[in-house]
Amino acid sequence: MNGQKEGLTIKQVAEAAGVARSSVSRAFTRPEMLSPETVKRIREAAEKLGYVPNQTARALSTGRHGNVALIVPDVANPFFPPLIRAAQMEADRSDLCVFLGNSDEDPKQEDKLVGRFTGQVEGLILASSRLSDERIQAHAALRPLVLINRDVEGIPRVLIDSGSGVREAVAHLAEIGHRHIVYVSGPTKSWSNKQRRRAVRMAADVLGLKVDIVAAAVASFEAGREAVGSILVTGATAAIAFDDLTAQGILAGLADRGIRVPEQFGVVGCDDVLGAATYPSLTTVSNRSVEAGKAALSLLLELMQSQSVRDVRYVLDTHLVVRNTTIGHGE
Amino acid sequence: MNGQKEGLTIKQVAEAAGVARSSVSRAFTRPEMLSPETVKRIREAAEKLGYVPNQTARALSTGRHGNVALIVPDVANPFFPPLIRAAQMEADRSDLCVFLGNSDEDPKQEDKLVGRFTGQVEGLILASSRLSDERIQAHAALRPLVLINRDVEGIPRVLIDSGSGVREAVAHLAEIGHRHIVYVSGPTKSWSNKQRRRAVRMAADVLGLKVDIVAAAVASFEAGREAVGSILVTGATAAIAFDDLTAQGILAGLADRGIRVPEQFGVVGCDDVLGAATYPSLTTVSNRSVEAGKAALSLLLELMQSQSVRDVRYVLDTHLVVRNTTIGHGE
DNA sequence: CTGTTAGCGCCTTCAA
DNA sequence: TTGAAGGCGCTAACAG
């Protein structure tokens, strides 16, 4: 079974089955146009020979390749793999092959990849694109194109709203008695960081909590650990970190000073990248990246079918996942 | 710039430049066959029109697609993203597009993916393949094929030898005073698991350590946590886990029981998937997955060029990364 | 150096 | 329902 062979074409199958080449073609693409028995005969002959239709020839003739491309800034950033996987699985259900591109956070590289893919795909997904609005629009004019976490008017997009989860986090902290918290910010230019910081500010205002901002130059374990000094001098009793990695760093810095979590200090991460796989397990904001990947691919499929370029803006809200860095086991 | 257009072929470029279609083709694929000025003229005409060669047509005619495929069991398994990224970057240097496949740990699915890709790629890489030797050999007969972490004779392969790092781990534990350790095993059918278990056994024998094997049904945080009971009854004072996730689970289970790490019990992980980003940071065995991805792609490139099917077996050794779950900060 | 001429393997009108 | 023929866009001999 599945003994594919080289250089095997419809021609040999046609001869073996005693039909014309066009019938062989139809037996695979439009069996309803042929009598059931002819289809059967052809399929059997094909099977016996180990014939497999040549995708490339098919694509050249129809313009349909059955391929899509997904480009991300960094495959190794733990935020993306689940998203990639979800998109993959969804593509699989439609028998599509997916090209993966790694832009390395570089607009030039991303542009190059799009160009390289565009000739052999029916559509693309750009996740957290680093491209300018203009370039995105230019590419979208050529092929169906869906954006993830990038808000360009007129281009179908899937947005993860971390604001909703962050607001829940603030409410949760208020509820368990915190009156003064700090937000440990990430990259200042990041869209997500701005969104999160603003959400913390607004929610804290509404609930009458005092909030300070502490900057962690970059989003990393070490940055979080080093920020602990600044965090503690504010007098706050809990911190919401830009992401989980930073939060883990804060946990380490706290442990260095013998401060117990969650009894003496509460910590909340963002993106739920570690799951429950740390100890103590991190209270964090869910990321919905799986849904985002799946939704983006579904959207792309729709786009590919009906060329109508509707202006879709699909927003996924997030929620707080309470684990053990804000409330102890017993409560 | 880069204003690609649909339905633009060599024909229009040929007319615009006043040459034959074959010259246009040559201007792009073999400029050295044309006079420099002709090349220039053609290229300018192409540029002005926004012409981009059609990859599909080219592939049909030459049999070369410029695509490769990489199939992994689970994109979201943190072991793979760095590997994928490395392969990607390497492919990029040769202007290759890479298809990514997720077999979902399922041989059938993997076989399906290979079949779907095989028609439009020049070669494939199978990472931790779940396929039978026979299927792998069948596929390798059709196209250049490189294996990662799978040892099939006659098929070029890149192997990460966790054995060397595991031996270092055992030596390290012996050196800091442990006399009785346990290996917490992962999936029994896994090649890596067998390799690691054997390495522990052998190294322990050589050093005169007592070693017990405790099975964690699957490799996961929860499995590790639940294994702690069985671990403790053996009387061992340290554990080497199949992977980092399991090790984290063990850490959690130990903490549940108030057992301090590393003072009362030592823990070593495998694969260095978390980096130093946990607290206490995990002593573990490096994974070399980046090198593996890069090497696999280089190997594939060689294979694709010289059809000589040499029996390459490229082994990457690993090393122990000592952090804080075996030795405290002070030492 | 450059033009002419066949295909690559398949799909798809158009007739029969 | 089936066959014949042309073409998708490009490359690769073969001439000139």
Helix content of chain A: 40-55%
Q: Output the radius of gyration of chain A.
A: 26 Å
CATH topology title of the largest domain in chain A:
Rossmann fold
CATH 2nd-level architecture of the largest domain in chain A: 3-Layer(aba) Sandwich
Enumerate how many helices of chain A there are, as a single number. Answer: 12
The major pleated sheet of chain A works out as: 6 strands, parallel
Hey, which two chains have the biggest interface? Answer: A-B, 60 and 58 residues
Quote the average pLDDT of chain A. Answer: 92
Q: Topology as H/E string of chain A?
A: HHHHEHEHEHEEHEHEHEHEEHEE
The CATH top-level class label of the largest domain in chain A = Alpha Beta
Show unreliable segments of chain A: none
- Number of separate domains of chain A: 3
Going across the major beta sheet of chain A, what is the strand order?
A: 2-1-3-4-5-11
CATH superfamily placement of the largest domain in chain A: Response regulator
How would you classify the quaternary structure? homodimer
E-strand count of chain A: 12
Structural class of chain A comes to: alpha/beta
Shape of chain A: elongated
| Content of β-strand of chain A | 15-25%
- The separation of the N and C termini of chain A measures 59 Å
